[in-house]
Amino acid sequence: MGSVHQEADLVEKVCQIYDKISKLETLKPSQDVNSLFTELVTTCIPPSSINMATLPQDIQETRSKLIRLCGEAEGHLEAHFSNLLASFPNPLHHLDVFPYYSNYLKLSQLEFDILSRHYSTEADVVPKRVAFVGSGPLPLTSIVLASYHLKEASFHNYDIDESANSMASRLVSSDDDLSKRMLFHTRDVMEVTDSLKEYDVVFLAALVGMDIDDKVKVIKHLAKYMAPGAVLMLRSAHGARAFLYPVVNPEDLQGFEVLSIFHPQDEVINSVVIARKDSVQVETEHNHHHQIGIGSIVPSCCKYRDFQGLNSPLNQMNIIEELAMDE
How do residues 61-81 score in pLDDT, each as one tens digit? Predict the structure, then answer.
């Protein structure tokens, strides 16, 4: 009975915070914006068994609106720091002005480790062409992976917003190496077809498709055009964290074999789903044989909360790896 009351209190508090956020004149970085989103994250991050699918329709609608507001605020935050970085002669030498840069370094290391484990059984076989869909004005994941982990790979960053790509490209234009390996495409990924076959790995940003119907459309499109055997990495959410980001379930990944799903139990917001493109056509009905990964987690960065206790992430974070999420 206690958990029922706890969930009711959680929903009530989230709705109260949503009400305050929705009344803000702007979601650009400010003391009020930062305070409210920090409160929201703090409220949603503790482990919770709440099932979003069982919530009343009005709460479901509030959640959908809140996810969109989170996406808008995140975009403003990234644009703000992208513009700030662009004021330096070499922006890549000053990435640490972004207050969460150190988190990206740690998280990208984990992402690379997981990708390496699932990408190939041969240690010397690494991705050569990577796509990031929804890269935004501050593409730190691509920059960190290209700078420290996949040093020979080309990174094709897709965003539907021309201004976001313009800001992002300024960050790498003065770097002799990354300016050649980081490319930016102003395209709706739903209009990208045969080019998707060229990528070994495709990253799908959490807020590409901010409701599950839109996200499933994107996933089906990727399944249709990605090369057989290519890897898809995408972010999801679990428990109360699903008030912040859309949830992706294994059944949403038709055309892919789900390799692992990671539900962090610590200061990390996103779950991460790693899947491999099936060798059969996406339209074909077939059974999925999901293989659970072992002993690692791939967390995603939350822009509004500092992470604590991440000195040894693999040892310190509790891990839940599941075939399905309770959504």
Answer: 999 999 999 999 999 999 999
Q: What is the pLDDT of residue 268?
A: 67
pLDDT value of residue 100:
75
| Long-range contacts from 108-113, C-beta under 8 angstroms, 24+ separation | 108/140, 108/141, 108/144, 108/145, 108/148, 108/149, 109/148, 109/149, 110/296, 110/297, 110/298, 110/299, 110/313, 110/314, 111/141, 111/145, 111/233, 111/272, 111/298, 112/145, 112/149, 112/150, 113/296
pLDDT tier at 290 (50, 70, 90 boundaries)? Answer: very low
Are 110 and 179 spatial neighbours (Cβ–Cβ below 8 Å)?
no
Neighbours of 30 (CB within 10 A): 13
Q: Is the pTM of this model over 0.85?
A: no
Name the DSSP class of 227.
Answer: P
Number of neighbours of residue 191 by Cβ within 10 angstroms: 8
Q: And the tokens for 96? A: 């640490």
Helices 57-86, 2-22: inter-axial angle, 10-degree rounding: 50
Tell me which H or E stretch contains 65.
Answer: helix 57-86
- For residue 157, the cross-strand partners are 132, 184
DSSP 149: I
Q: Which residue has the tokens 């495409």?
A: 185
Section 198-224 average pLDDT: 93
Helices and strands in the chain: count of H runs, count of E runs: 9, 8
Measured in whole angstroms, how far is the alpha carbon of residue 130 from the centre of its chain? 15
Q: Which of 215, 145, 218, 156 is nearest to 181 (CA)?
A: 156
Asked whether 133 and 230 are in contact (CB, 8 A), the reply is no
Angle at 303 between CA 116 and CA 135, to 5 degrees: 55
pLDDT one-digit tens code per residue, 7-62: 999 999 999 999 999 999 999 999 999 999 999 999 999 989 999 989 999 999 99
Instruction: Tell me the CB-side half-sphere exposure of residue 84, using CA atoms within 13 A.
Output: 14
